[in-house]
Structure formats: C-alpha cells, structure tokens
Amino acid sequence: MPMAVTYNEYKQYLSPALAKTTDLVIERGSGSYVWTEDGDRYLDWVQGIAVNALGHSYPTVVEAITKQVRKLTTASFNMVNYPTTLKLAKRIAQLAPGELSSVFFSNGGAEATDGALKLARAYTKRPGIIAFKGSFHGRTMGATSVTASNSKYRKSTEPLVGGIHFAAYPSVDQCPAGYDEEQRSAWCIDDIQHIFDYICAPDETAAILVEPVQGEGGYVVPPVSFMQGLRELCSQHGIMLIFDEIQAGYGRTGTMFASEHFGVTPDIMTLGKAIAGGIPASAVVSTEAIMNEWHPGMHGGTFGGNPVMGAAGLAVLDEFEQSSILDNVNAQGVYLRNKLESLQAKYPIVSDVRGLGLMLAIELNHSDGRPGGDLVEITRSQALKRHMLTLSCGVRGNGMRMATPLNVTQNIIDEGIAILDESIAVAEQND
C-alpha cells in the first residue's frame, strides 16, 4: 500500500514561492468539507478562494467533466471548435449585462486581467491604465502591475509593466478620517481627476480597471455614486471601464454580476474562479465592436476554452437555474450577516462586518485602534485546531473573508459560526 505524502516531501520538491497557510495534505472533498489522507475532516470556508461555487466535487459537475473527458480533453481551441465551449460562451453572453456578448476564454484570473488590459489598449490605441490601491488582479507580470492590495506582491519584481497609475478606492482607510460614504466617493473621483491633470491625460488613458467589490483588499463595497462616477468619467473621455468580476461575479454577491448592484455596465468584464466548478477557467467579456479590434493572433493560449472547462461551466449554470442559487445566496447571505453581526456585538475586537450576499468579511482590531492582523491569525489558528479552514484579507491582514459555497445551508453556517465564536473568544484574550 502506498505511503501517504508528507508535508515535508511537499516542501522538498515544490517551490516555496506559493505561500501555504496550513500544512494539511488534502485527499478528497465533498460539499463544504475536505478530508486529509489520515481521514480527518475539515469544514472548508475558503473553497479554493471562492472557486467551488457549488462546493467540492458537486455531482452534476463531476458527471459533466467525466463524460467530456471520455470523449475529448482538448485539441487546441486555436485549431478547432468545441460544442461545450461555444454553448458556454452563448450562455455567458445571455447573462452578461448590456451588450457584453463576446467571450475570450483563458485559464485563470491573472490571464483574464492581462487579456483585458491588452484588449483595452488595442481598442483605444492608448497606453495609460488606472487601477486602485487595495486592488488584487493576479500575479503574472501584467496582473501584478495593476495590483496594490499589498506591497509584498510587487516585492523584487520591479520594474513592472509601464503606464500604470493608482488612485484611491473609497474605503475608510484610504480616505481622510471622518469622511462619510459620499465624501469618500467624491474624494476618490477627484483623485482620478488629479491623475488626469498631473500624470496621464484622459486621451492617453486606455482603461480604468476596478473591482466592483474589492476582494483581497478586504471585501470592501464602494458607494453606488463612486461606480457611477467612474462610468461617467469613462464615457466622457472614451476610456474603457473594466470590471474585475473574478471573485465578486458569478453569484457571489447575490446578483449574477456585482455590477448589477450599482446599475453600471462596464465596457470589458473579467470572470474567473466560480465559472467551472473547480476546473481552471476565466474569461474576458466585451462587446462585439470592442472585440473586433482584437484581431486574430493578437492574443491566445494553449488550454483556454477547452471542452472540459466548457462542459463543467454548463453544468454550473444549469445548477444555478435549477436550484435557484441566487435566491439561496441572498437568503443565506442575510442569515450569515446576522450571525456575524451577533459576533460583533459579543466581541469588541470585531470592529466591522461588511460585504454583499455571501461575499462577507469581518474585521478584527485591538481596543486601542491598532489593526488586529495578529488577532486574525490567532482566530484562524484556533479555527484550524477546530477543523475549519479560513482566509484573511486586507492590506493589514486584519480581515477574515467568508467564501462558503453558494448553495450553503443554515446548518453549515451554524457549524462555522460556532467554531468562529470559540476561536474569536481566544483571540479576544490577546487584545
């Protein structure tokens, strides 16, 4: 009988560049749980960082993948077409807002980010890109160039792609103290105007790239007026508005796309994570007119748009329809928020509860106002001891994000909240 793989072997043969938050070696998963090779079960509130929209190994997704693999894995989308991939593109086009109806498939969020930036520059014939502090868009050279959720992601990689400029996002920690939501919105729109005035003129700006809800940056929800202000600026100056919906999209916030909360349609949208139920997949979605300036050969990829991804993606969307997933996200999102707010009322170190739908986070801080990144790590460590996987967020590491499956039930939420309750109680003693 083969011996179990140890974490020390893992460290010996695989690069340490990818940071690990646990030393668990996971063998299998089902729904909201994963199991180690030793048979220990863990409640997973990370779900591949919001990848497994329906939980681990969802039966209809597994069936669709298995059926497709038996027929064809890939023959290069550059050479041939696949029925599943074409059907998935059509389904996404039907769901996407406005006239976003043309899809380019790739494998991960960073690839989609790079593609969106290339598309914006190809269409506008301009060099400048404006992104936001607190943003996370991936770790390729292009995606890292527009990422500013933490300086560690850019360490030892400069110089990065040129022509990138960063503006403030309307979060509390990036704006003047005491500003309310609308004041933060106006201040951040004015910050973009300063970039236009001092650094990169509007007619030299190809795109403004923004997460409609910041993910890695702390699950920060911006004011509606801010998102609408971005739309107005872009429309006024012929700038492409790019929404990174890689984490916030595909039902996570209670609407199919987070843009719907703001009444704003972008010119280009990136998707990823939840598209294919755990299979690597991402997409750049835009209008036919914009995509037509991305001429054949200007972008590509070996594995993007493969038929296995297409089959899995179709199965995910079928389940969204048949099981009213968005209704569940909204109902369970309210339930989870109420439970988190109860923890906030119980523990002074829980200073904030924020988010939309099932894209929710709590923030931990010391009673004297110091960021509680250490408190988050204590809470996460205690949760792991109680067999629950959790994930931090925020530039100071003082946020904890919840990434349950979108079909989560109250029983699973109650189980997780009970573990969080006990874990935060330990962290509270270290305030």
Shape: globular
Corresponding CATH superfamily of the largest domain:
Type I PLP-dependent aspartate aminotransferase-like (Major domain)
Number of strands: 15
Integer count of domains: 2
What layout of secondary structure does this protein have?
Layout: H1 7-13, E1 26-30, E2 33-36, E3 41-44, H2 47-50, H3 59-71, H4 83-95, E4 102-106, H5 109-124, E5 128-132, H6 141-145, E6 164-167, H7 181-198, E7 205-210, H8 224-237, E8 240-244, E9 268-271, E10 282-286, H9 288-291, H10 307-322, H11 325-346, E11 350-356, E12 359-364, H12 373-385, E13 388-389, E14 391-393, E15 399-402, H13 410-428
Helix pairs in contact: 3-10, 4-10, 7-8, 11-13, 12-13
Model description:
Pfam families: Aminotran_3. GO terms for molecular function: (S)-3-amino-2-methylpropionate transaminase activity; 4-aminobutyrate:2-oxoglutarate transaminase activity; identical protein binding; pyridoxal phosphate binding. This protein is α/β, with parallel strands linked by helices and 431 residues long. It has two domains: 7-58 and 324-428, Aspartate Aminotransferase, domain 1, CATH 3.90.1150; 72-322, Aspartate Aminotransferase, domain 2, CATH 3.40.640.10. The chain is 38% helix and 16% strand. The chain has 13 helices and 15 strands. It has helices spanning 7-13, 47-50, 59-71, 83-95, 109-124, 141-145, 181-198, 224-237, 288-291, 307-322, 325-346, 373-385, 410-428, and strands at 26-30, 33-36, 41-44, 102-106, 128-132, 164-167, 205-210, 240-244, 268-271, 282-286, 350-356, 359-364, 388-389, 391-393, 399-402. Strands 4-10-9-8-7-5-6 form a seven-stranded mixed β-sheet, with helices on both faces. It has a four-stranded mixed β-sheet with strand order 1-2-3-13. Helix 3 runs antiparallel to helix 10 (307-322) and helix 12 packs across helix 13. The longest helix is centred in the last third of the chain and has 22 residues, at 325-346. The relative contact order is 0.15. The mean pLDDT is 95.
